[in-house]
């Protein structure tokens, strides 16, 4: 799926690439083409803080994570800690640890995940390499922390390509309370009048096909892997205003 999305993004002419739900950047970091400007956004302030720290203080961040191991007691302690009492770097390190150690890479409602068929879930050397590579990639990228609608309003112009990866229909609460089911209809309404181009990826549900029915919809097969559970086949849709 990510491969297909990257190919579509690269085939769509644009000067400004804008991603309102960037999450951990699964598609953002895979693209090879670099347009004139790139802007990423997420409503989750902890995630945005991590991106800013990766870009500005990669060495300090990796140093903080150097002696981190896969340990349930550390996970529980970090989960219970109040990030508002921490420095930005400590908050970023906490976010990485919780994200890496949680079952299914969840952002809220996290549980400690144990890998039973391979190495433990946290390897500080490879985490450091990934963080440094991502920090380098972000050097010229603008990072926003807005609601998706305010982000679209701010960056919509004729040369913009928005790639939207909102929470899946039916799993809206998975990422906190920033996004409700009513937002899909609002999204279709707003996208119908944008000046630029857009690509939306979502799960293939009849409700999704109905809400976005005025646009081009391509169904694609994909598979999700959860540690220890093998791959699960699924259907997704790619929605565009071609
Ligand atoms: C499906 S994830 C994105 C996954 C990401 N594209 C990736 O490949 O890793 C959805 C993201 O939407 C963010 N989000 C939820 N509500 C939002 C809102 N109202 N505005 C902007 N982002 C929001 C969540 O914090 C989460 O990171």
Q: Key terms for this structure?
A:
alpha/beta, Adenine-specific Methyltransferase, domain 2, 9 helices, 242 residues, binds S-adenosylmethionine, Rossmann fold
Description of the molecule:
The chain has helices at about 1-10, 45-55, 60-65, 70-80, 90-100, 125-135, 150-155, 185-190, 205-210, and strands spanning about 15-20, 35-40, 140-145, 160-165, 195-205, 215-225, 230-240. The mean pLDDT is about 90. It has a seven-stranded mixed beta sheet, sandwiched between helices. The protein is α/β, with parallel strands linked by helices and about 240 residues long. The protein is built from nine helices and seven strands. α2 packs across α5 (about 90-100), α2 (about 45-55) packs across α6 and α3 (about 60-65) packs antiparallel against α6.
Q: Provide the succession of SSEs.
A: HEEHHHHHEHEHEHEE
Structural class: alpha/beta
Shape, please? globular
The set of bound ligands, ions and cofactors reads:
S-adenosylmethionine
The total tally of domains equals 2
Average pLDDT rating: 92
Radius of gyration: 18 Å
Fraction of helical residues: 25-40%
Main sheet: strand order: 3-2-1-4-5-7-6
CATH level-four homologous superfamily name of the largest domain: Vaccinia Virus protein VP39
CATH topology (fold) name of the largest domain? Rossmann fold
Q: What ranges have pLDDT less than 50 throughout 5 or more consecutive residues? A: none
Strand content: 15-25%
Task: List the quaternary state of the chains.
Answer: single chain
Number of H/I helices: 9
Quick one: how many beta strands? 7
Q: What is the CATH domain class of the largest domain?
A: Alpha Beta
Sheet with most strands: 7 strands, mixed
Distance between the termini: 19 Å
CATH architecture of the largest domain: 3-Layer(aba) Sandwich
């Amino acid at each position: 799926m990510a491969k297909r999305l990257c190919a579509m993004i690269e085939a769509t002419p644009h000067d400004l690439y804008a991603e309102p739900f960037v999450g951990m950047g699964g598609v953002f970091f895979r693209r090879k083409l670099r347009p004139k400007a790139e802007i990423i956004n997420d409503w989750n302030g902890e995630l945005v803080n991590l991106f800013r720290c990766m870009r500005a203080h990669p060495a300090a961040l990796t140093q903080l994570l150097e002696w981190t191991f896969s340990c349930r007691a550390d996970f529980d302690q970090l989960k219970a800690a109040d990030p508002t009492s921490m420095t930005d770097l400590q908050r970023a390190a906490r976010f990485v640890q919780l994200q890496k150690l949680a079952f299914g890479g969840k952002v809220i409602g996290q549980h400690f995940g144990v890998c039973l068929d391979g190495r433990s879930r946290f390897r500080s050397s490879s985490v450091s390499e990934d963080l440094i590579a991502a920090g380098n990639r972000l050097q010229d990228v603008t990072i926003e922390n807005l609601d998706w609608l305010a982000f679209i309003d701010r960056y919509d112009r004729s040369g913009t390509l928005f790639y939207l990866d909102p929470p899946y229909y039916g799993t809206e609460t998975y990422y906190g309370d920033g996004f409700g089911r009513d937002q899909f209809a609002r999204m279709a309404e707003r996208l119908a009048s944008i000046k630029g181009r857009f690509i939306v990826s979502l799960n293939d549900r009849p409700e999704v096909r109905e809400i976005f029915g005025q646009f081009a919809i391509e169904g694609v097969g994909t598979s999700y892997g959860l540690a220890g559970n093998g791959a699960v086949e699924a259907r997704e849709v790619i929605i565009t205003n071609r």
